[in-house]
Amino acid sequence: MSSPEAPSDKPKADAHKASVAVADDASSYVGTPAVGTSKAARAAGVASIGPDNSQVNARRRRLVWCAVTGFLGAWFIAFLRFFLPRTLFEPPTVFKIGYPSDYALGVDTKWQQKYRIWVDRTPDRVFVIYARCTHLGCTPDWKASENKFKCPCHGSGYDSEGVNFEGPAPRPMDRAHVELAPDGQIVVDTSRLFQWPKGQPSHFSDLGSFLQV
Q1: Are 180 and 213 spatial neighbours (Cβ–Cβ below 8 Å)?
Q2: Residue 2 within any structural domain of the chain
Q3: What's the CA gap between 90 and 112, in Å, rounded?
């Protein structure tokens, strides 16, 4: 029969168990878990996983990325535009307007919007009036019932050949250079204008200011 454990050995056994428990606890972590760690989340009763990858969340993320991409793209385009030359897109100054036989006697306004000109045909010639008032540069209106051009800005009036007779306009409207192309069409060049300066000789009979018909 074995003898009972000596009373002096029991305190030693209890102390050994306590040290083992402390060591196990120390191997886990000491003190309050760091914020943001999975242990801190478990300690606070918060799930340690991220948001669920549902269809709604995926759609939201896609919308956010589209907005960010669009914003950055707009700024990038603006950045590039800053370094590009600023050009004005204007209609060509040299163009064809058809054949002399396409025009009847009088004023034809079909090219006013596109080229800012009127084609004027008299019994012996065809010429092109540049549709710009010589007062302040407005575009007059052709009043067929009154057989005259009338500027809507300050009331300048011109006859059917563009010669001023009323209002503040100082001189007649200019005429563009015209010539016939090899195919027989009329070629107009609005970069070459013929004028009749106030108090000076007219250039409306110069070569290129009209076509003989």
Answers
A1: no
A2: no
A3: 14
